[in-house]
């Protein structure tokens, strides 16, 4: 519909009465919008266990026990090194910054989709200067100069007739929710990596100190062996055996130091701190232990996972996968709506000013009306786009099922590791005590000439093996708790050790 208003001539009164007002057009078109092309999204039903396996160390039906703080769960370990390096990593982590940037990008995409609900208002302006020949009296050769100008706003608005805009916004919102859950997962994984590497570095340093002590003891044994050899109370093979054991321990120490350096480098990459700071933070304490003393190893708090339904409904990885399913469902609706006609409402208001041959004229024109556009034949492209969107939806559902299964597996593995490390804790401590007592007795017997050097070295190897096992059990027990936190998304409940399965 088009209407013009001249500055010198008024249109007939009946013409204005016959012109439908803009609000009437908008009301008519809005009643046509919102036709749903598919049912409302419902999260797919997925199979999940009703309870965790028997590996759970304590009953998780504990009344009145507080949950572990998901936002600062690592503080439950009481490890100042983990606290300090985690704080540094969260403040300046490239991985976390990337996850945040992806979330910001998804939020901006949502803003673009939401803006499509409203009208788009623009403006146009033009100025024309023209010269023309007077054709009525050719003999005069007179020319005429004219100037014309125009300016005014333009409005365009897509009426969401079949839900294309609504579904696009729903898909963008679901993707923002997925990226937010991904950022939560990234943060959880980052802190878990820091905690695991701190624990591994502590265990590595303890194992290194065991080797240092072993080398010092072997050097004393070699010196005594050479003294005996010089007095004829030892055979040359005993010196060779002692020297060979010392060389093997020194080789093991070099390999152990390399492993510790790799762990330091990993913490440098995770936290952004330099290697010296990492070593001082993780290994040094207020009262630095003697080389013969083990460094601090935190003990995991007694806690159990929430029920499977709670964990799987709130785990950030599962949430992200479910939101991707919701986005894919909405995009199916978008693909279906794209096959149907599109209804747009356009309005233009233009003021024009013309000056020619010494006279001027100004008038205003406006137009308002809908336009319906659609594709009559596309060679099957629209149907193919719908099929592709449906396939992406099925793929997202399969991805959600896979994420759920892997989450259950990770929880069960963490529970099994926790049970194993707990069982090995007491047995390895008993093994260290027994092996240490055996070595002391063997050293006294060897000095008295009651046993051979080979038997003494065998006792020494048994002690070193027992010490390594005890260090690994202490590390594994705390790392299993960290793995359980990560596997459950931080949904743990504090409990006490005396609550056991019946």
Description:
Helix content is 58%, strand content 14%. It is an alpha+beta fold and 502 residues long. The chain has a 5-stranded antiparallel beta sheet with strand order 1-6-5-3-2. The chain has 2 domains: 1-30 and 119-159 and 341-374, Outer membrane efflux proteins (OEP) (Single Sheet); 32-117 and 160-339 and 375-494, Up-down Bundle (Outer membrane efflux proteins (OEP)), CATH 1.20.1600. It has 11 helices and 7 strands.
Please tag this protein with its features:
single chain; 502 residues; alpha+beta; Outer membrane efflux proteins (OEP); five-stranded antiparallel β-sheet; two-stranded antiparallel ribbon; 11 helices; 7 strands; 14% strand; disordered N terminus
Give the rounded overall mean pLDDT.
Answer: 81
Spatial gap, N to C terminus? 82 Å
Number of domains: 2
* Named CATH topology of the largest domain: Outer membrane efflux proteins (OEP)
Give the name of the CATH architecture of the largest domain. Answer: Up-down Bundle
CATH class of the largest domain, named Mainly Alpha
Largest sheet: 5 strands, antiparallel
Task: Work out the helix count.
Answer: 11
